[in-house]
Design a protein that fits this description.
This protein is mainly α. The protein folds into two domains: about 70 residues; about 30 residues. It is about 70% helix and about 0% strand.
Length: about 130
Amino acid sequence: MITKYLWPLITSLFVVLFGVTLLIWPFALHTNIRGWTPGTMSDFWTGLGVIVVGLFMAGGWYSHLHRELISRGIIRVHKPKPQEPAYARQPATPATNDDLDDKLRILAESVLNDLNAQLESKDRRRGGGPVA
């Protein structure tokens, strides 16, 4: 039954209304003529606390009602499908040792060429000759 969630939700909203009433009571009845008296502060802060408690109650009952409506299929929740990256859709081919050796050799040669070029440019800046 969905009414088991509606009555507490309505009641919690009445609790919030009561808190608002407590909050503005001293100002509406003009009982705070001498400023913030202890009675005014008590009504104000109690009303604020009642509002917070009522809002937490309303939020909790609303979330349970929402979950109940989803579980019964009355409300549909559309969740976007996560897209697979392009590399995940391609079939993986196992790499052989020869392929890995060739790729690593090419990588090592390019790193060695870069290092040699850096050393030569460093020696030229110092005024030395090419490295033998």
